[in-house]
Design a protein that fits this description.
With 218 residues, the chain is of the alpha/beta class. The chain is built from 10 helices and 9 strands.
Length: 218
């Protein structure tokens, strides 16, 4: 008897498929999960998969995975089929925020959502954000990834009518406290309508966007 039970009905029930959090798992446990999923021809999203965990998997399973080291995500079963759902745009303050931002993008892609990513538009040079203002205002949901003081959340939310999901990242030093300052900035934003997820939680930001757009289509 296996020590795991995959929830294959979760997407039909909630709109978001189960993902496998790999950080606390051994390569043997991850391999067993992948083996079951592959055996039934299922698609599966893996998050927080470290390169050393990936490299320790059997070669036949590694060959089946689309692995992205930057985001720590892997996809089993190939890309989502069908026309992508439009409406989400991801904004990253700097290249240092791209790990969580790409986790969000990959989670959205797994679920069949198009999610363009605009990077390096932080408040240290607001002219860079202004160059993309028209695209920002066309989006229905914006995921904004930022660390340091998290100022970008409020700046973006003050410019657009779309739902803004703040994705605080653990970028920064000193009082940035591993993303805590950015999280507090999101929670205390004076720009109305900012929703915050936990630090570095690109998966959570993406699933929130999926649920917002799913509700809007009803």
């Amino acid at each position: 008897m296996s020590d795991f039970t995959l929830d294959w009905g979760r997407e039909a029930r909630t709109g978001v498929a189960e993902a496998v959090l790999c950080a606390p798992k051994t390569p043997a446990q991850i391999a067993a999960i992948l083996g079951e999923a592959a055996g039934r021809g299922g698609r599966l999203l893996l998050t927080r998969l470290a390169p050393e965990q990936h490299d320790a998997l059997p070669a036949d399973l590694r060959a089946r995975l689309d692995f992205d080291p930057l985001s720590g995500t892997a996809i089993l079963g190939g890309p989502h089929r069908g026309a992508p759902v439009e409406g989400t745009l991801i904004v990253a303050a700097g290249t240092a925020d791209l790990g969580p931002a790409r986790e969000a993008a990959r989670t959205l892609a797994f679920h069949g959502h198009a999610a363009p990513l605009i990077a390096d538009v932080g408040v240290a040079g607001l002219w860079r954000l202004n160059e993309h203002l028209e695209r920002l205002r066309e989006a229905r949901v914006l995921i904004v990834a930022a660390g340091m003081e998290g100022a970008l959340f409020s700046v973006v939310a003050g410019l657009v009518s779309a739902s803004v999901i703040a994705l605080p990242t653990s970028v920064g030093y000193g009082v940035a406290a591993g993303g805590t300052l950015a999280l507090h900035a999101a929670l205390s934003s004076c720009a109305p309508g900012v929703t915050a997820v936990n630090i570095d939680n690109g998966f959570g930001a993406a699933t929130a966007a999926i649920k917002i757009l799913r509700a809007a289509r009803r």
